[in-house]
Amino acid sequence: MQLNSHDEWSPLKEIIVGSAANYTSHDRELSFDLFFHENLFRSDWAYPRLHQGRTAPVGERAWTIKQQYVEELNEDVEGLARTLTELGVTVHRPLPLPPDAAPISGLGWTAAPVPPLNLRDNTLIVGDEIIETPPAIRSRYLETRLLAPVFGRYFERGAKWTTMPRPILTDASFDLSYARDTETTLGGPTEPIADPQPSPYDVGFEMMLDGAQCLRLGRDLIVNVANANHAAACDWLERHLRDTHRVHRVHRMSDNHIDSMLLALRPGTFLARHEGIRDLLPEPFNRWQVIVPPQPSESHFPVYDDGDLVLTTPYIDLNVLSVSPTEVLVNEACVELIKVLEHEGFTVVPVRHRHRRLFGGGFHCFTLDTVRESALEDYRD
Fold this sequence. Notes:
By secondary structure, the protein is α/β, with parallel strands linked by helices. The chain contains nine helices and 19 strands. Helices cover about 20% and strands about 20% of the residues. A hairpin with a 2-residue loop joins strand 7 (about 125) and strand 8. It is globular and about 55 Å long. Mean pLDDT is about 90; it is low at about 40-50 and about 185-190.
């Protein structure tokens, strides 16, 4: 089928499900620590500061993930793919990251690549267009190349395929203001962020924006902007889509991604972390129904020790995936959320996902919907 996806809820026909193959470690360097700083501030006591930081070889700064968790992650991702297939959705998969993948390099940096698991981050689907977004984590710089065969097939069927300007990603490329702002973060950044090093390749703050910062509502896109990197990328997006879409900026709804804060389940209905999110939304979307589930219980998550790098808050289970305006995939462990959605008339499909806090994503993150029975509607009317 031809690429066609305008929103988050229309009947789902085709989707790409990520691959967790060979996801064995995290590369702890400046861009990684900055991206996850809101959870890594605990490094003062739980996560050792990396004094070697940027000068250490790639292998020496790797944070190894326990093999049990790696195996269980792969089981759960394959279970998600099977569930979608059983629901009648055509599932595409990226190329897996090989077990012996060599480090990737840019101008002045080297990083260990990660698998194409959280597909939502580095690509934005807008109607019949694939937009590869500029990555903020060095280890993910070439991640969309593992999606190229799937994107190529959609291109052959008529899809547009665009790549936003790629950042150089020197230390000076990153706007650190959000991480250093005591009003928006509970703790300071980890050591490598505190002292960025100059580079002959510095060009100032660069465009960086993840697709997961964008909420698609037909002709309207809501984009979370928390720093100068996001703002520059949003400028590009506004100009690129100005003939067809309205781009609305919300200021610091989160440090980056919007889809564990706010998701649209159907026209007129959001799922949100808290009621106050309504105040950040543009009119008339601030008048939509906002479903706020109970605070998630820690009992729904595995117990980890100090050797396990926790990357998300317990609210990660808000990261659900809509199959239609009435049917939604939800983590089977999140029983309160399931009850709330069923009370609101949704059919819930429970799916297992155990280690979402270690790998930084839920069902919306792990997938990229490419074909929905949707049209370019105006939901402001």
